[in-house]
Structure formats: structure tokens, C-alpha cells
Specification:
The protein has about 325 residues and is mainly beta. The protein has 1 helix and 21 strands. The strands form 5 sheets. Strands 17-16-15-14-19 form a 5-stranded mixed beta sheet, with no helix packed on it. Strand 3 (about 65-75) and strand 4 form a beta hairpin. The chain is globular.
Length: about 325
Amino acid sequence: MRLIKTDINLVSAGIVLLASVTGVVAQTCALPSTYKWAATPNSPLATPKSGWVSLKDFTHVPYNGQHLVYGSNHDASNYGSMNFGLFTNWSSMASTSQNSMTSATVAPTLFHFAPKNIWVLAYQWGATAFSYKTSSDPTNANGWSSAQPLFSGTISGSSTGAIDQTVIGDSTNMYLFFAGDNGKIYRASMPIGNFPGNFGTASTVILTDSTNALFEAVQVYTVQGQNQYLMIVEAIGSNGRFFRSFTATSLGGTWTKQTTSESAPFAGKANSGATWTNDISHGDLIRSNPDQTFTIDPCNLQLLFQGQTPGNGASYDKQPYRPGLLTLQR
């Protein structure tokens, strides 16, 4: 009887342990209503290699358990494009290789399009407003296909034209979001079966505010474990660049303000914990997987961003931007 009793106890303990483990795996978090970050570390993650003055416009995916980052660079004369060699820990980013691309893909967006098992790199300043390239090996900075049109339209009332795209999908459609440095955020869409391809020439204005309040660097994400999407948009404040945030229950739906002010932003000088930069500028939230859903884990939010030494006096193109990392504090 003792043997039988012991077996029952073991089974009961196993059920309790399994339930406990299942609870950990199934843990979900809502997005906070107010954000507080820590700079991890409170210094740039890397400095530009010789000949470059800035590293900026970062896009990040997890790749085989490592970090893969693409971005723009400036050499004091022209913009270019680059990627970092793979690295496992953020502390290793400073020593990993910085690899030049032979053709510029400025302000890039990198993701794996799972339905067709292909990597996509979207960017601006190509033959059309936005372009894309594809690859089977995203680690090779110069292994991408020839450029294809992603969006061929134009916008009015903008000194820059369409700028700073991002692409995201749900189960039925792919969506293109972009800015215009003019207080507006735009959206276009296509059936997911038609992607990769051209979103065409038409777009819809989905958000309107002052120029400084909706400036550029829009990013859109699926919030893991929630029926929710998160949009962040870079704004210009009196103390530097910062991000505002918006939420929606569908990518094709209406976006609601979540954080709106420089004093209580999604991420900015007021809540970043960073002292090496006043600007929390163009970057990417660290995603849970590399696919077209751009899924983020609200329990473990991190933001890879571009920052710079305050008061450096450089013109915008030559400002010494560096990568930085924020980790959400709960």
C-alpha cells in the first residue's frame, strides 16, 4: 500500500508542477498605461567604424538565438546602409563587425515573410518612394536581390515625401505604414497572398496632428497575448526626440492615443533613465520572432534606439547617432 500511496503522491506532485510550469509559459502582460525605462547600459552600445560619423535607423530581428541588426550610416558626405555581424549579448555589439552594403537601403525594415519563407528588407530613397529586396540569408549584407517597388505613390504637403516605412501583417492582409515629416501617418494594404509586391499608389491618412507631434519613424507591432496592436511614432519635443504611442484592435482600424506628451511619453528623456542622450529616436522594439506579425512581448519590452551626445552642434545628417537600449521597468 505504501508503494501505491507514494505513486499517487508523485502523480499529484507532477500535476501540480506541470500546472505551475504551464502557468509560467502562459504568462501574459498588458501594456502599461505609463512607461518607465532603464538605460541598459547607460551608454552607446557601439560606435561607428572608421570613416563613418553615425549609426542610425535600426531594425532588429532575432536570428537563430542571436541578434541581427541593420541600419543606416553616414560618412559625413552621404547616407549608406549596413548591418552588424551576429551577436548573442548586447555587450558584444561594440565588438562585432559593421558591414557596408554596396547599395543603400536607408531607414530599413527587416523581417521574415513566413508564408513564402523569404526574408524581406524594405527601405526608402530607391527608384520608387519605398522599395524592397529579398534574400534567403539575411546575415549577408550584400546577398540581397535586385530592388522591387514597394510603394509607388506620392503625398502632398510634405517637404520630404513619404518617409520611414514599416510593414506588418495579420492573417489576411499586409499593411504599409509611413510618415511624411508633416504631422500625418499614412497606411496602405494588400492581400497577404500578393506579398511581396507593390502596395500601389494610394494611401490613407490615419492620424493627423502638428508636425512635431507626428514627425517620423513610425513602427507597428502585434502585442503578444492581447487582441491589440501598438504603434509608436517619433515626435520632436523641447528636450529632444521622443516617442508617442497609439493602440488599435485591428491593423486596418482606428488608432487611439495611449501616451501623448513629452512629460509622459512612450519613451523619451522624461522616462528613459538615459543620461548620455536627450534623444530617444528612430529604432525598433525587440521582437519575439522575426516574422511579418512583428510580435512583441509586453512582459519583456526592450527598445533599440538611436541617441547622440547632447549639444554636439552638428548638422542633422552629421549628428553622431549611436545605438542605445532601453529595458522596460515593471
